[in-house]
Amino acid sequence: MTRDIIAILRGLTPGEACEIADVLIEAGITKIEVPLNSPEPFDSIARMIAHAGNAAIIGAGTVLDVGAVERLAGIGAQMVVSPDAFPDVIGATKRAGMLSYPGVMTATEAFAALRAGADGLKFFPAFKLGTDGYAALSAVLPKGTRCFAVGGVGPDDFQAWRDVGIAGFGIGSGVYKPGMSAADVRTRANDLVSAYDTAFR
């Protein structure tokens, strides 16, 4: 089963990158994002790509400019996640053959991102939008738009978001915090996968 869960590893360091990637992949989470405001993020991403091969889609979050997109393409990243819907970043991401998941909150931002070529939309902060807000917005989006709830959403919320048509989730501190052991990440990842499978069965 392919699960639309993006693990957001903010604060990850290169020395732990491969071990954390292993436990996520073993649990069934195969989309991994290292935000660029983490320590040495490009090094962490490059290590995980070399280590995991085709077992995961690995990329960066908090991508704000075309220069970062080009650097990510150069190390073989497959995914770019942004907090905003900057058309230049989306366009550069698609030209480089990577998946683009920009952050949006309004219908205007969502359609701008889709017109620029986004593969999916990151609704952030999801807990502020809520399931009611998302249900209203999603009614006007093109059928089949892949939408992710990110920010303040955890496994206890998966079913409610699934019920209003969300495709997946971006999970940050709910799966990883700096200093957390691989065993802790494994436990949290297993809980997320179990909740996702229950909601999307």
UniProtKB/TrEMBL annotation:
Its EC number is 4.1.2.21. One of its GO terms (molecular function) is 2-dehydro-3-deoxy-6-phosphogalactonate aldolase activity. Pathway: Carbohydrate acid metabolism. The keyword Cell membrane does not apply. Gene3D superfamilies: Aldolase class I. Keywords: Carbohydrate metabolism, Lyase. It is an enzyme of class 4 (lyase). Homotrimer. PANTHER family: 2-DEHYDRO-3-DEOXY-6-PHOSPHOGALACTONATE ALDOLASE-RELATED (PTHR30246:SF1), 2-KETO-3-DEOXY-6-PHOSPHOGLUCONATE ALDOLASE (PTHR30246). Belongs to the KHG/KDPG aldolase family. This is 2-dehydro-3-deoxy-6-phosphogalactonate aldolase.
